[in-house]
Amino acid sequence: MPDHWGFVFAAYGIAAVVLFGYWRRLIRLHAELSALKARREVKR
Amino acid sequence: MMFARRAWIVLWKDLLTERRSKESLNALFFFAVLLLFLFEFALGPDRERLTAALPGLLWLGFILAGLLGLGRTFLVERENDCWEGLLLTPGDKGAIYLGKLAVNFLLMAAVAIVLLGLFGIFYNVDLWASLAPLSIVIFLGTVGLASVGTLFGAMTSQVRARELLFPLLLLPVQVPVLLGTVKATEAVLQGLALAEVAHWLKLLAAADLVYLVVGILTFEFVLEA
Amino acid sequence: MTRWLGWLAALGLLAGLAMGFGYAPKDAVQGNVQRIMYVHVPSILTAYLAFALVLIASLGYLFTRRTGWDRLAHSAGEIGVVFTGLTLVSGSIWGKPTWGTWWTWDARLTSTAILFLIYVGYLLLRGMVDDQERGARYAAVVGILGAVNIPIVHFSVLWWRTLHQPPTILSPERAPVSASIGLALLVNGVAFALLFLYLLSKRLALRRLEEEIRA
């Protein structure tokens, strides 16, 4: 049975990219919205 | 008693509107004819290929017609500003759901009959022999399609991109109904006894029941301000 | 609290990697491709956990009308879609060397794909309703219908692929999993559950912020 390490690394790589990307997205949106909120409060 | 009566009033109102305007029925019949021609053009005139694909085409056509017809369920109320009228109806909102469901069931049953007749004529399939078992399959499939369609139709009638959202919500949920009806229709058209596909019929009946119960219980949450 | 969860999840994932690549032996039949399982199985279990939460939170919202329930349903639904997508992709990558094809209409593959589509529709609905309260109600109804539909989809797809009805509902006809593989799976499962909780708390905080900005 051949090992197909390429497929294994592809699977782990994609999983890492997807999960990391989703996490980054949450962080980024949170930072953006916090900044927006802070700016609004300053205006008031 | 009152529950059944309220459902009946909704059904009667919509049937009357439809009888006077004939808007949905005419459009859906025409759509069925168009679909038939499109299937023919897409698959070519090869008789055997058509016969093999027939159950799938039949239900695909039926579901496409359902997307058009069921999405309009609450259009009358919306366009004529009668949504508040529905909201103010006293008592259990499940009755309104059942009434609307009955309207949709009748509408889709009419489409099914026309579509079947057209398939029989144009594709030269002998439907008379299997008419009784076929009507059971169609009944179960129509209830499944209409029960979810009515619930989602009420929702999407209040949403911006309703023509877009309705199929996106309805189609994935309808996969079991599509699989069951296509498999059962296939067996019936091959002349097999209904007992051969009893598990599919049971699955369809169970799905219908689940959709109906969820629909009746959750409809009051859809029909709010 | 959230920060701690994050570190715990990161540690768990590292431990999972070590277990998956270091501790667990090479599979006798499939070879090293089998190691994809340590991503694939925890992903789908997490997705099921997420969708179960969507069902509970949807019911909770309809009964109590507290925005907290809606927040939970929304967040869990979104993360569930991410994990379902991951399941499909990792399964597909495993299938190519093992079955020789990226995709077959296998029963479990198909029902997972349908699950994915149902909950993508759920998220689209949330995006398309302008009124917050109405969107929450509609989403709750779809969340409930989608969840009760899962067993129906499961059986329909199973019978669609196999000609005859299976003898029992839960037929454990698979080969028993060896203890070390089971342990590696368990560690990865716990790590994914921690990751899920961490992402959930992040998503919930984001959703709370969204509401404040909207108000």
Give a concise summary.
The complex is a heterotrimer of chains A (44), B (225) and C (215). With 225 residues, chain B is an all-alpha fold.
Helix count from the secondary structure assignment of chain C: 6
Beta-strand segment tally of chain B? 0
Helix content of chain C: over 70%
Report how far the terminal alpha carbons of chain B are from each other: 27 Å
Please give the alpha-carbon distance between the first and last residues of chain C: 27 Å
Helix content of chain B: over 70%
Give the helices and strands of chain B as they follow along the chain.
Answer: HHHHHHHHHH
Q: What fraction strand of chain C?
A: under 5%
Shape of chain C: globular
The overall number of domains of chain B is 1
Unreliable parts of chain C:
164-172
Give the largest interface pair and sizes: B-C, 33 and 30 residues
Rg of chain C, Å, rounded: 19 Å
Q: Given the C-alpha coordinates, what overall shape of chain B results?
A: globular
The count of DSSP E runs of length 2 or more, i.e. the number of strands of chain C, is 0
Q: How much β-strand is present in the residues of chain B?
A: under 5%
Q: What can you see in these coordinates?
A:
Chain A has one helix and no strands. Chain A is 89% helix and 0% strand. The radius of gyration of chain A is 19 Å and the shape is rod-shaped. The mean pLDDT of chain A is 89. Chain B has 225 residues and is mainly alpha-helical. Helices cover 81% and strands 0% of the residues of chain B. Chain B contains ten helices and no strands. With 215 residues, chain C is mostly helical. The chains are: A mainly alpha (44), B mainly alpha (225), C mainly alpha (215). Chain B binds chain C through residues 148, 151-152, 155, 158-161, 164-165, 168-169, 171-173, 175-176, 179-180, 183, 199-200, 203, 206-207, 210-211, 214, 218, 221-222, 224-225, and chain C through 62, 114, 117-118, 120-121, 124-125, 128-130, 134, 137-138, 140-142, 144-146, 148-149, 152-153, 155-157, 159-160, 165.
